Amino acid sequence: MPRLLFAGAAIAALCATTLSTQSASAEITEPPDKMQIEIATVNGSGCRPGSAAVAVSPDNTAFTVTYSEYLAQVGVGSKPTDFRKNCQLNLIVHVPQGFTYAIASADYRGFAHLERGASAVQKASYYFQGSAETTPVSHPFQGPRSDNWQATDVTDIGTIVWAPCGERRNFNINTELRVSAGTSDPTTTTSFMTMDSTDGDINTVYRLKWKECPAKKP
What whole-number distance in Å separates Cα of residue 134 and Cα of residue 77? Predict the structure, then answer.
């Protein structure tokens, strides 16, 4: 059964399903009732079922996704398929009646250890059920480095796409981590990149914008 999650932090980015600017009233900062999110499905080598959790912020302006097993690596101790890990979250978003939402931005965090000559890429795309998937946004990282990393996806205000009013469309988040040995020696070194919750504060935060839906005609 889907796991219902009530409290925590939020969503962010793009999608495809248009909403006429004439059909929605002024944007607001917070709906009167609380948003709820269920994880409908979790698929991918970076997030087996039970290894990802979602929480919604008290003010309904964001939600957080926390991972516990999201790690891509190359080199000593890794399998040939470990260089790329991905995760697709399919979320059921219960929106307060009379409102719709859109993804405004997303912050991704993790830890990367990249040997000299190695590199990594974090990638993400977003879409509402029944809509076209957005073009992935990529963030490259170069070795040598051994530190926390952060990447942010921001949706231009003029291209924000709103969830259809009065309809329940599941929201999908596709993410990927990819590590390349490059000119480093994978027989003697290991390079890796994580997006997880090992220390309790490495997670992904998605920020929302809210808008009041137009009143239904009698």
Answer: 35
